[in-house]
Specification:
single chain, two-stranded antiparallel ribbon
Length: 305
């Protein structure tokens, strides 16, 4: 089988996607190594960053890896079964990242409202993130198939084959599941968390018998609220341009411009998987500074002890 010749656009896509894949994988492996070295049982932040790093690697290796392979070969050469399976798992990693940020934000908001740190709750929310992601991905094997076009009969492509009446519904359901629902949930959860955080800070701590414990809780809530807001901003900033682009339709005569613009916005959305490790770096730096500031402050034992 002779593969089609790569065009300049194909070469550009391969180079850019490969750079994002390389730096993203390295960054997330560093996060996993850091988590392994500093793991603290019961840490909500570390728990969700662990799942975020795994989801990032799934998205990078499956989604981006598939894009590179398909671009390099120009056509689909792996068969119908591989087309359905690969399309399912490539979207799964992307969805898991967004819904894990949702789970982190919701868990943090519930923790601030109820003043509790439920380990079971975070497990349940993470399982729900997987369920939502799998449910949305379940349409991929049904719609995707290998197709040969009449104007190019020598080459096959893995594409979504939809009835004309269902194209609009599928288009908007993907936008809602991948972007709108996660963003709205993240915004609402963080808004509730900010309001309750401010309310919990207002009473005079000196009047409370367990003031030191409350101060510790507030410091933890403040850090994790800052981190969930930062993660929400990463998802919002990276995904909003490409989501809005997908919502706006234009005439066919602008197709070349649309393709170039979509490529740029798509690459920017993929930077999510590089920016999340950067947020973890900030989280790690703050927790390390706090640990060093409190180290050695405990009273030393005396000879009488």
């Amino acid at each position: 089988m002779t593969l089609p010749m790569l065009q300049n656009d194909h070469k550009r896509d391969i180079v850019v996607y490969s750079c994002v894949l390389y730096f993203g994988v390295i960054a997330n492996i560093v996060v996993l190594y850091s988590l392994w070295r500093t793991w603290r049982q019961g840490s909500r932040g570390q728990y969700f960053f662990l799942h975020l790093s795994i989801s990032n690697l799934l998205a990078l290796c499956l989604y981006l890896g598939t894009r590179i392979a398909v671009t390099a070969t120009v056509m689909w050469v792996a068969g119908i079964a591989a087309c359905k399976v690969v399309m399912f798992f490539s979207l799964l990693g992307v969805l898991l990242v967004n819904y894990t940020v949702v789970a982190f934000s919701v868990d943090n908001a519930i923790g601030i409202v109820t003043k509790s740190d439920g380990k079971t709750r975070r497990h349940v929310l993470q399982v729900l993130a997987w369920i939502f992601a799998i449910a949305i991905c379940s349409t991929q094997p049904y719609f995707y198939n290998v197709l040969t076009f009449w104007f190019d009969p020598d080459y096959s492509y893995c594409v979504a084959m939809l009835p004309h009446a269902a194209e609009e519904a599928y288009h908007w359901s993907m936008i809602a599941g991948l972007y709108l629902f996660p963003i709205v949930t993240i915004v609402v959860a963080n808004a509730v968390a900010v309001v309750m955080w401010a309310a919990n800070r207002s009473p005079p701590l000196a009047e409370k018998p367990n003031a030191s414990a409350i101060i510790t809780d507030i410091r933890t809530w403040t850090l994790e609220l800052f981190i969930t807001i930062a993660l929400g901003l990463v998802v919002f900033i990276c995904w909003t341009p490409v989501a809005v682009f997908r919502m706006v339709r234009s005439e066919d005569r602008y197709q070349n411009v649309r393709n170039t613009l979509f490529f740029a916005l798509d690459v920017f959305s993929l930077m999510t998987y590089c920016f999340i490790p950067a947020v973890y770096g900030v989280y790690r730096a703050i927790t390390k500074t706090r640990a060093e500031s409190t180290h050695g402050l405990e009273p030393k034992p005396t000879s009488r002890d």
